[in-house]
Design goal:
The protein is of the alpha/beta class and 319 residues long. The protein has two domains: 26-120 and 246-314, Bordetella uptake gene, domain 1 (D-Maltodextrin-Binding Protein, domain 2, 3-Layer(aba) Sandwich), CATH 3.40.190; 122-219, D-Maltodextrin-Binding Protein, domain 2. It has helices at residues 2-20, 40-56, 71-78, 97-100, 135-144, 159-171, 183-191, 202-210, 258-272, 275-283, 293-314, and strands at residues 29-33, 60-64, 86-91, 111-119, 122-126, 150-153, 176-179, 197-201, 215-219, 247-253, 287-288. It has a six-stranded mixed sheet, with helices on both faces. It has a five-stranded mixed sheet with strand order 7-6-8-5-9. Strand 6, helix 6 (159-171) and strand 7 (176-179) form a beta-alpha-beta unit. The longest helix is centred in the C-terminal third of the chain and has 22 residues, at 293-314. It is globular.
Length: 319
């Protein structure tokens, strides 16, 4: 009788190990978005999900969990089973919110980076009526009247705010930050001349730039944008360290098996190389961003250091 029990125990243990060692993925993969459908990062998640389910051989769906600018969605992923089937689709705000709010998760202890998806450049724009024709003229005006010029943002901690602060520090100017509820309100006041300049998302400002309502002075990203190929970056204009990289990426709960994370990284990068995916991404005003896993991990760690210092220098954020 004891022998039968021992055999049963061994078999049960074997079944448990087999179940645990199932090859990823063995069920539906969920991309958890913290923004509304139609937003750039949510749309990017849907573009990738369509192709990813073919390569993974399992359904891949996008699930929206709204609240607190993505913090709620990220908290849900942080507490999910660390098996790779629940994935956060977040933006570079991931490395900002720990210093502007108090999220119920730690960006390092609770998450493992998976892959970058896209980057969206911001454009330094001003109203033609302000009379600034170059970045250098804008900086000269700011230095001639410290504390007088203003720049708009789409809110505290947004990419437009962080880009504005990086440029401010790099150019060594004293300007006043004017936060708005979103890009439309900020652009409207720049066009009206009530605010001097704004680092506007290219997709939000391109129409007004082409119509002559806004004057584009530079790209506030690490490289030029195909949407305005002749427009230099702020770094090219002579301000090293002024570029801000607004990215969309994927993360999973900490303790997810390394082989699962690496598989996801490989499959996502394979999807991003597809011409159709690149074309659809460009229509969003974004560019595909592929990065080896170690590089993405290193970028997040460095951004956490840089953003904390930047926000402290600006005198904003939580204590």
């Amino acid at each position: 009788m004891n022998g039968i029990l021992r055999v049963a125990a061994v078999l049960a243990c074997g079944l448990a190990v087999t179940a645990h060692a199932q090859t990823f993925p063995w069920k539906t993969v969920r991309l958890v978005s913290g923004v509304t459908p139609g937003s750039a990062s949510d749309t990017m998640a849907r573009i990738v999900s369509e192709k990813l389910q073919t390569s993974l051989g399992q359904p891949v769906i996008v699930e929206n969990r709204l609240g607190a600018g993505g913090i709620v969605a990220a908290a849900y992923v942080a507490k999910a089973d660390p098996d790779g089937h629940t994935i956060s689709v977040y933006t570079s705000a991931f490395t900002v919110v720990p210093f502007t709010t108090n999220p119920p998760w730690d960006p390092i202890a609770d998450f493992t980076p998976v892959a970058t998806l896209a980057t969206t450049p911001n454009i330094l724009v001003t109203a033609p009526s302000r009379g600034y024709n170059t970045v250098q003229e804008l900086v000269a005006a700011a230095k001639a009247s410290p504390g007088k010029l203003t720049y708009a943002s789409a809110g505290l901690g947004s990419s437009t705010h962080m880009g504005g602060e990086k440029f401010k520090a790099a150019a060594g100017i004293d300007v006043v930050h004017v936060p708005y509820k979103g890009a439309p309100e900020a652009i409207a006041d720049v066009i009206a001349g009530r605010v001097d300049y704004y680092f506007a998302p290219v997709v939000s400002a391109l129409g007004q730039i082409r119509d002559g309502k806004l004057r584009a002075l530079a790209v506030g990203a690490p490289k030029r944008t195909p949407a305005l190929p002749d427009l230099p970056t702020t770094v090219e204009a002579g301000y090293p360290g002024s570029d801000y990289n607004f990215w969309v990426g994927m993360l999973v709960a900490a303790k997810t098996p390394r082989e699962t994370v690496e598989r996801l990284n490989q499959e996502v990068n394979r999807v991003l190389q597809m011409p159709e995916v690149r074309e659809r991404t460009e229509k969003l005003g974004a560019e595909v961003l592929m990065m080896p896993l170690p590089a993405f991990e290193a970028m997040i760690r460095q951004e956490l250091v840089d953003n904390e210092q930047l926000l402290k220098a600006a005198g904003v954020g939580r204590n």
